[in-house]
Every structure is written in structure tokens, then in C-alpha cells.
Amino acid sequence: MNHSPPHLNQPPGQSDWRIWLSIVFLGIGAFTIVTTELAPIGLLSAIAQDIGRSESAIGLTVTLYAWIGAFSALLAAIALGRIPRKPLLIGLMLCLALSNGAAMTADGFGLLLAARACGAVAHGLFWAVIAASAAQIAPPRHVGLAMSIVFGGVSAASVLGVPLATLIGQESNWRIAFGAVGALSLLTALGMLAVLPRLEQNQVKDTRAALGSVLRRMDLCSIYVATAFAVTAHFAAFTFIEPFLREAPGMQATMVIALLFGFGTSGLAANFLTGIFIDRYLRALLLLALALMTLSLFALGIWGTQISVAGVGAMLILWGASISTIFVGFQTWILRTAGAAAMPASAVYVAIFNAAIGSGAMIGAWVQSHSGFAAVMMVGGLGGAASILVVTALGSHTSIPQSELQP
């Protein structure tokens, strides 16, 4: 079985600075697209008041986005394998800009959902190709570092994107927040046009057969199951983190933003550390991160916001750091295990990831409506524990990546 990174079509003649600048811009694209996806989380109350719907209903804009992203990722594996990567990535960022502009001008719940749905299609296609593209650009021995940079955009979206969107929504209007993300999407597309190298399209002739082959591989499917548990757990809780924090006695709006900023900052710092160690200790880092996330969610579920603000902040810091490592770890594991099947394996991973986001948001909404926000955190903790069990079992049934065996 081939566990080597997918680098068969690595762009020739690229200088080191151009290689890493290209990967950084892929990370900026990840920042933009994740900010678009998660912006409603910090704006639930404002959007609900303006549109005239409940917070749970507005939470569906996250759920719908995720489910459509899951289906479009699978579409990418079948239909987009032979399209050149650079124009594809640029075009998807332009689609995202249009989606955010439409959301900004939506005057009703239906139009808002439609705008989000259009962005979700671009989202799934983008994530289906970005990891394989970064691995194609990066030196083979530094695929894990490249993944940490790209997924650093996810953490940065939590550090800056979601809190800034929340701040803009509170200080002016939630529509302005979507407009700002749309403008960033346009600027990112222009940056990609300038710095991305020419990337060869997938050389797999029968993409449907390749996709079927991936789905029959038990090593990949086991990683997919562990990912599904972890991501569902995270988003069941994180989708409702803003109203959960607002329930705390004496909690001010500015403190909510500060806590979300702390969550994201810890994730960004964890991305840096993950990039240093992941190419050698992938599975150990994953288990540690899953344990910390599970501990944090159980603590928030048991004590809720009755503990001090500092205590809540400490749990959010552990949670933010751990989920960042989890995102990078599972994606890197998939790429290493898939070998030459990186594109279809990544597409399936993105589909499962986004389906888990949608499932998590839906489960969180149901639990919140019946049992409250603390119960949502407990459900998240249970999902994290399930993922730990699967990853632990993988130790005896799935080969460890070769870099983890090096001295």
C-alpha cells in the first residue's frame, strides 16, 4: 500500500519562496471560505431579529450550507478531475464573492438560504481540490507542514473572521459583515491569479472507478468514520456557542467576542505547533487533541457558564487548540494513506466533513430546543469520545504513515 504523499505532478522550476507563497494564498482562500461558512454563528441573534426567524431557524443556514457542500465535494471527484486547478480555484473564489454579495442584499429568509446555497456549492468544490493542490505544490517531505498552513486559514477564520464578522454585525449591520467577506473573496481570487503556479489536472481517466476504489478501502473508511464523529461533535456544540456564552450571568457582548477570539487564537497557535510535529507524530497528536476537545466539551456541559469567565475561557482555549490539530491531522492522514488516489480520497473526506458539519448543527439544534445549551456540549463530548475509540482501534488495523516511523 502506498503511503507516500501525492506529488507526482509537482510544478517544475518553482523557487522555494514562490512555492510557500502559493500555499499561503491557499490558506487565505481557506480563511475566506471558512469565514463565509461560519459567519452566521456569530451573527445568529442579529440575523434572527432582522429576518424575523428564530435562532434555531437561522442555524439552518449553517446546516444547509454544509450539506450542499458535502454533495458538491462528491461532484468534484466525478466531474472536475480533469479541469486545471488554478482557474478552477480562482473561479470558485469569484463564485463565493457573488454568494456573499447576494446574502448581503437578501430581504427574506428564503433569499438568504438561496444565497448561502450557491456559496455552499463553491465551498465543497474548493475543499475537494485545495488539499491535493497544496500537496502537489509542496515538497514531498513537507506535506504535513503545507496542510497546517492551509488549515491555518481555518483557525485564522476563528481568530479573525468570525469575531470580526460578529463585531461588524454588532457595531453596524450583519449585512455589512457579509459584504466585507465578499470583498475579501474577490481580493483572494486576484491574489491566486498572481501567485499560484500552473497545476496539472488529475490524470486519472476513470474518476468514478477511482472514487469507488476509495470507498472500498477499509483503511480510508475507518479514518472517515473517526473524522465524522469528531467533526459532528465539534459543530453540534460550536454552532450554538454564541447564545451559549450569552447565557452566562453578566456576560457582555464584547466579552463574547473576546472569548471567540481566544478560541481562534489558540487554534492558530496550535496550527503552528502542529506544523512542527505532525510529520513525525501524527497519530499521537490526533489522540491528544481529541482527548482535550472531549474534556473541554464535557466540562462546559457539566458546569456550563456557572463557572467563572476565566474557566469558560480556559475550556474554549483547549477546545480551539484541539480542533485545529484535529482538522489538520485527519486531512494529512487521508492524503498520506490515499497516495495516488489523493483527489477522490480528499473529495470523499470533504463530503463527510461537510455532512458532519450539517449533522452536527442539526443535532445541536434539536438538543438545544429540547434540553438547552449545556446538553449540546455534553453531546459534543460524547462524539469526541467516540472518535477517540475509533482512532485507538486504527492503531492495530491501519498502517502508520512512514514519517511517523522515522527516527
From TrEMBL:
Membrane topology designation: Multi-pass membrane protein
Subcellular location: Cell membrane
Transmembrane segments: 20-44, 64-81, 88-106, 112-132, 144-168, 174-199, 220-241, 253-273, 285-303, 309-335, 347-367, 373-394
GO molecular function: transmembrane transporter activity
InterPro entries: MFS, MFS_dom, MFS_Efflux_Transporters, MFS_trans_sf
A single cellular component GO annotation: plasma membrane
Cross-referenced Pfam families: MFS_1 (PF07690)
Residue ranges constituting the Major facilitator superfamily (MFS) profile domain according to the UniProt record: 22-399
Keywords assigned: Cell membrane, Membrane, Transmembrane, Transmembrane helix
Domain of life: Bacteria
Identification of the protein by name: Arabinose efflux permease
